[in-house]
Write a structure and sequence with these properties.
310 residues, mainly alpha, Rhopdopsin 7-helix transmembrane proteins, 3-stranded mixed beta sheet, globular, olfaction, olfactory receptor activity, transducer, cell membrane, G protein-coupled receptor activity
Length: 310
Amino acid sequence: MQLNNNVTEFILLGLTQDPVRKKIVFTTFLIFYLGTLLGNFLIITTIKTSRALGSPMYFFLFHLSLSDTCFSTCIAPRMIADALLKNATISFNECIVQVFSFHFFGCLEIFILVLMAVDRYVAICKPLHYTTIMSHRVCGVLVAVAWVGSCVHSSAQIFLALSLPFCGPNVIDHYLCDLQPLLQLACTDTYVTNLLLVSNSGAICTVSFVMLMFSYAIILHSLRNHSAEGKKKALSTCISHIIVVILFFGPCIFIYTRPATTFPMDKMIAVFYTLGTPLINPLIYTLRNAEVKNAMRMLWSKKLVSDDKR
């Protein structure tokens, strides 16, 4: 369908056109991105090398950190580089690839968060059957389904994007390619496309959020019957997950469950869940998790010992 379009590239306005503010954007988000890579790389390395972190919860955390890294990487490098350019452009094909990768890893993160909630529900509400229900094979199948489901979702986004004809303005008032800003440029009635977008992305975000909040409400209610020590540990883990869920789903629901209209705060809200959440996740899961912190200390101690032997 691209052959029917007059537009071969788009101009990204980014967060600002002011040269001084562009330098601030470059510095700030370069630090954010490097922090995201460092934090998630530490979690991925720690889980992969530590035998103490072999439970399903950390298996899902590994995939969450992986999706966070990829999710941020499909947006941040271009955004940082564009801050140094006077006119930032992106080709039609690159735009479509960014739409696919952005939705793929964003959807994957949603599914992984759902799986983590399921894991906590079984661990707290069905402790005697936990090892049977959440076996390594079951966890592997669930994660595989999450990857396939994310691919189906992002493929639907690509289908919607390619169905839009672009014949006029090619200026995107955003720092990334997404269906919402692309709908503003399409030279056709986008009512049906926007309806499909809301029923796809909007429904995934909203339904998943409601399911997560409901499941954590059940989990917190069931903690009444646990011992003080068990209650404290489970409560700490659940609160960490709830914080992540609210920080990620709040902006997503705001963006994808309304008509294709642009508000001044849209770009800043998008920054929060595309770059902010992947940076915050490692902090929440390490600072509030004693097992991860202990495993990181052991990994660091082993590295120091190996360096001393050399």
